[in-house]
Amino acid sequence: MIITCPNCKTKYNLPDAKIPAGGAKVKCSKCAHVFQAKPPKLEPEDQALDLLERPEAQAPAGSSQAFEDAFDEAVSDARKPAPKPASKPRPEPEPEPEPEEDEADTPYGEEAPAEEETPAEDEAVEEEPVEDEAPAEEEEAAEPEDEGPHLDGDLTLDGGPAKKPAKRKKPLLLALLLCVLALVLVYVTYVLQPVLPFKLPALPFNLPGVKAPASEQDAESPAARVKKIALRNMRQYVVVNEKTGPVFVIEGKAVNTFDSPKEHIRVEAALYDANGNVLGSKQMLCGNTLSQLQLQVQTEEEINTGLTSEVGVLSNNTFLKPGMDTPFMIVFFNPPKNIKEFGVKVIDARDPAQ
User: What is this structure's pTM?
Assistant: First the structure.
């Protein structure tokens, strides 16, 4: 075995036989350290082999043959069939009462013949119905199987009830959900029709919150084109021009109340006398106005040029979204003296070019 000095770690190879079981003191030849050397610990397998090699572990002579004989005898006993339990004796039938015979019928000195006993036959007769009882019960138990088809379904080829197909509820619910979703999508599309870049076909019925589109004839008529252009903040006054004299001025605002953009709104103003006769009328595109100073100092040509300027029309009278307005001003030079009232109306409004 190999031992190691705990002081200098020098290893020595010593025979196992020189170290007793209790250990021995040894001295290191290098550092002169004395320490206890113990034999190595035996593994479980080595301990078992050591025990078997000891004299007391050896089996006595002849014991192996006796063990084999006892083992063979036990195996042969186990292979023998178990004896059947003895059947209980059947009770003998009670003898039937015999009719009394007259003494005269029996000769004196003779005995009545004894009845023949046939226990074997009685037992055989009694055993026969016992053997037939089991098949009878089996037939009775098998009879319900031969009955007609069950009430809860038809019979399949193997005799079992046919399985009913499971109801498919999920496809039906999914189809219903898709229909509802499609209806909601159509409704929302018609509600948002005014802001969509395309037109939807007219519905044969009215939906709540959806305005029915006007027919093509109504859309092309002048009245349909201007029916939702409102006039607000209108007023009239007279201004004395230095060059032409008094001028009659009408101004206000045109508001787009349509659901879609409009542009090039045109208005017409008329002057009436006390009898409602028209004294004069004038049309003008909205979008241009003049100040009080311009009305007082500019010539008639300059005033007309300023009120018909394309710059004002492009700036204030194009692509008017719903709710937007555009100003207008109409000027009458040398107005009649018998003016009693005036009127303004919208005569045209166009859709923006696509």
Answer: 0.42
